[in-house]
Amino acid sequence: xxDSAAAPEPADGASVGRVPGAVGEPGAATxxxxxxxxxxxxxxxxxxxxxxxxxxxxxxxxPGRRESSWPTALLRSLRDPFTAVLLCxxxxxxxxxxxxxxxxxxLLVAVSCALRASGEHRADRSMAGLRGLVATTATVLxxxxxxxxxxxxxxxxxxxxxxxxxxxxxxDLVPADxxxxxxxxxxxxxxxxxGESAPVAKDAGDAAVTAGGGGFDRPQLCFQGSSVASGSxxxxxxxxxxRTRFAAAHSGDEDRREASAFDRSVxxxxxxxxxxxxxxxxxxxxxxxxxxxxxxxxxPFAVAVAVGLTPEMLPVIVTLCLARGASLxxxxxxxxxxxxxxxxxxxxxxxxxxxxTGTLTQDRPVLHRALGPDGRDxxxxxxxxxxxxxWTLQLADLPAPDALDDAVLDAAGEDDVMPFDGVAALPFxxxxxxxTAVVRTPGRPAVHTLVVKGAAExxxxxxxxxxxxxxxxxxxxARHADEGLRVLAVAAAGRTARTRDYTPVDExxxxxxxxxxxxxxxxxxxxxxxxxxxxxxxxxxVLTGDHPGTAVRACRDLGVDVPQGGVLTGERVDGLTDAExxxxxxxxxxxxxxxxxxxxxxxxALRASGHTVGHLGDGVNDLPALRAADVGIAPRDAVDxxxxxxxxxLAEKDLTAIDHAIAAGRYAGGNIxxxxxxxxxxxxxxxxxxxxxxxxxxxxxxxxxxxxxQNLCFDTAxxxxxxxxxxxxxLRRPTVLRPRQLLRFITGFxxxxxxxxxxxxxxLAFALSGFEGLADASAFHSGWFTENLLTQALVMVLLxxxxxxxxxxxxxxxxxxxxxxxxxxxxxxxxxxxxxLGLSPLPLLYYLLLAAVLALYAVGLVAxxxxxxxxxxxxxxxxxxxxxxxxxxxxx
Length: 892
Known about the structure:
By secondary structure, the chain is α/β, with parallel strands linked by helices. It folds into 4 domains: 3-62 and 138-251, Distorted Sandwich (Calcium-transporting ATPase, cytoplasmic transduction domain A), CATH 2.70.150; 72-122 and 257-335 and 660-884, Calcium-transporting ATPase, transmembrane domain (Up-down Bundle), CATH 1.20.1110; 348-360 and 524-650, 3-Layer(aba) Sandwich (Rossmann fold), CATH 3.40.50.1000; 364-521, 3-Layer(aba) Sandwich (Calcium-transporting ATPase, cytoplasmic domain N), CATH 3.40.1110.10. The radius of gyration is 36 Å and the shape is elongated. Residues 1-27, 126-135, 252-256, 803-807 and 872-892 have low confidence and may be disordered.
């Protein structure tokens, strides 16, 4: 975000968003220079000036996002590599007059594209209902004429222009980037912009420009997207619309986002299959021409073999699995999946990056301890702190207590404050850094007691203490601060009762009473959710703008282990190269004092070291990291630009919802992985057997129509994978399948399937009275057709994701689909439809021998699967990083 985004524009509009002063230093101009540059003043603009400026600079609205139409989403889904491969195969089939194959393939393409486009279009419509969570009106000073006094009025924020003078009060959202004219006790929440959980003090003075901070640390500037925590102010608008810091986040081009795990996996396996498909038809044609003197008539069969090698249902299965998971998440947990492949990526996540405030902790402190001057617990200190908080709230006419005062009052009892009568109050001032309440103690009408509470340094310097004692107390306060606690000092002093007003001059000669310490209130469900995530193999990284000690304390209170050296600050991140950061990030748990660019670098470094990374963020400062992660996650109440950039939107900022989404992603990923393993290994075995049969037989091993019918039966049965619920073991670790593991699995089970097919050829020869019986093409086609569907049914049951005991929970979708597939294989050859396909009934002996082959095949499947599961699951990090760079990766 350019520094100029927050600066004022000149009256002529020639350089919108710039202020006079040091180049690139927002807020470097003095107040007088800023007003002169804006051609404005403390009384605000006239209505004529405001109308002219709005016509020139436009309304104060965020850059609009153009939603994709349903036809656009449909065309975009054609870019899927598998869809493109199927489309090419369909066109080739049509070119060789294989109209049945062509029609089925094109139907699959249409169904897949329609499902994906519909799911993403529904997500876009759901997101449209979450927009607009920004300020709607602002209190503005406008004049009807040049010499007339200003009128205070409420105007829609889109009518604000540079030079307008506005008023801010507690709870107001800052409607534009502004420069303060006057401020009284002003503090603002900048968490959506910087990630800081504590309110930031602001002041109208011409503070000196310091390096760093990106302008957010300028006390005289407030930015759109922040909100007023306490105090009041009058300010002049310096930037509106697309020129605010908040809107600058829209400038990121999401189309340049790096490919996610899903994108990389789909592209990798697509090119592997394309190579196989380009190689298979020429081999079939050359073998047929050389050995059997078959030429052009082999072409449809060669195309059918290529189709048989392709997992043509993959786009449909992937879309159905992800769409079903996304639909369940939306209905049951309020999670909107904006980009369907993101659900798959979430199932592969093994590192989750998140902020502290609002996720691990609530956005409020709670009292930790009340300590006397000796460092021991002292309830009297809490009593005096409560008296200060209560009477400051009552007498200073504050709309609501400060967050720390609220924590004190929650911890104290009513009896602590009721005996005292309030006399006067000096509210908190960011310059004094303390607040004072003056009370009358019962039974002592001639004495007023000043109770002072505030920053340790500010209070101690007003106490009557020896230098050594003051230094010891400051050291004690610093030690508690290093432990992640926020510390306030409490002091008191007696004064002779009087009627004249009390002033800050009276805050002298105090008696030190003690410290009150605070910690962040933990999110109720965070500890349990973190334990569940750890059990799922997901490690957490905390990326926060807060103090390192505060973040470490929250982690340890929640049971997150932060090892020695497991903390890194943004300043240290700046001193590391990308390679060094990738190495350090692997063992770092807390990244503190992080600016937006630090968060993005950490996420990128984790991905470079072989992790699949999810990032949960809700502020403008999270945008670079949301775009750098494999999966960007934002809550519903996040700033508008963060929700728009995220892949998943949560109903609440709750880790439990993320756990549900990860579970849905892993169930979907497990089903997709099972489909791929089963289909690719079965198809490879069938192709090997077809090539062998083509060399042995004087006719085509299977007619193109039979290949098509077999594929249709198997493809229809495979739709059950979209509705299967895998075994809970799938949830224990990220659903990642490495290229070497995938190829080893396909090769092993493909060869086993080919052996079963070749054994079937022998069974057919024996059942048909010797090898001469294989001269009956119809009988051979029927026998192999039946065996193919029966072996496919066995594979579906025995190789599904996870393991299920026999009789546990019924057959399920996979069991019913496999049973139907087996029934079709047995009944189709003896039916009228079978005769139309060129199939014929077989002798009973064949079925008896085939049962023996299938039994041996089932034993082989179980044995090979057990061997695969005993292989070590973990890889060395270096090997994993190398595989991450291979084009054939499949992260499922």
